[in-house]
Amino acid sequence: MNRFGRPPVSLPLLRRLALASVVANVGIVVTGGAVRLTGSGLGCPTWPRCTDDSYTTTPALGINGAIEFGNRTLTGVVGLIALAGLVAALMYRPRRRSLVLLAGAVLLGIAAQAVIGGITVRMHLNPGVVGVHFIVSMLLLLSTYAFWRRVGEEDGPVRPTVPRPVRTLAWLTLAVSGAVIVVGVLVTGSGPHAGDADAARNGIDPQTISQFHADLVFLLVGLTVGLLFALRAVGAPTVAVRATAVLLAVELAQGLIGVVQYLTHLPALLVGAHMLGACLVWLSTLSALWATGQRQPAVPAAAVQHPDASATPAPALSH
Fold it and tell me: How much is the pLDDT for 319?
């Protein structure tokens, strides 16, 4: 029991809440895409109210107002899930500082997203602000994924389970995956799906930036293939090989969607699927990197401050 007379939170409950936060943040990206793809970005023309006189949508705003207001409501749901995760991390015993910090970062990130969303509306869907909104969503996915994974891990340092060059290749794959997302945001900002018929575009030539995006995707796939072969060559743990194979499969599926949507002039349904695919590629890349290391048990503070006097002293290191 804690000091309020309630039992501490169980590890399975904490892990389920962390996973729910991952799923919810993927969901809000997809619904946010639906707002843009239906031209509902200014369905509620102001923020934090939906109109100057109402916090909720009105019949005069039609279906676009309902879609935009629905997405705002889902943001509140995602925030409540994050709040539950933070409360659970605070109640878990023994309390783990890493989990509290990660859960707190998720909640603060969602609050920041709400503000950025409001700025997006007030700036009439400026493509730069819309792009920042999406990139912050990817950072939130990083935070929620880390929260979920850390629940089941120790709190000590990470010990690589593969040779350093292979782990460096995994980090490089993550960096290129992030670059693909950033350039993908620029591609979207140059295309037709602005969220509103009168919204500005970023002025970049769509064909040029799309080609650059495709080049980065080819690089990402090549790095992933190289990582997969390297993991097999060094006898890496099965979990790392499997995670990288899943990443490659997701990348190929995402690439196929990207080619088809380009050739069919960006139909809304395929663009929405591509946004979901971006989330899955990012999460799969994180999974592949995570699988190349393993956290060790934390060293108790008492053991650091009061080492065993009977232990053989370590030899001095020369500098």
Answer: 38
> Residue 270: which of 285, 251, 256, 250 has the closest Cα?
256
DSSP 159: E
Q: In this model, does residue 302 exceed pLDDT 80?
A: no
Global pTM exceeds 0.85:
yes
Q: Which domain holds residue 76?
A: 7-155
Whether residue 217 is contained in a domain is answered as yes
Residues with Cβ within 8 Å of residue 265, at least 6 apart in sequence: none
- Round the CA-based radius of gyration of the chain to a whole number and report it: 23
Picking from 110, 128, 155, the residue at the C-terminal end of a domain is 155
- The first and second tokens of residue 59, run together, are 């019949």
Q: Is the peptide bond before 48 cis (omega within 30 degrees of 0)?
A: yes
On whether the CB atoms of residues 241 and 228 are closer than 8 A, the answer is yes
Contact 100, 89 (CB under 8 A): yes
DSSP lists the bridge partners of residue 278 as none
Give the list of residues 6+ apart from residue 103 with CB closer than 8 angstroms, or none. Answer: 18, 82, 85, 86, 88, 89, 147
Q: What is the pLDDT of residue 196?
A: 76
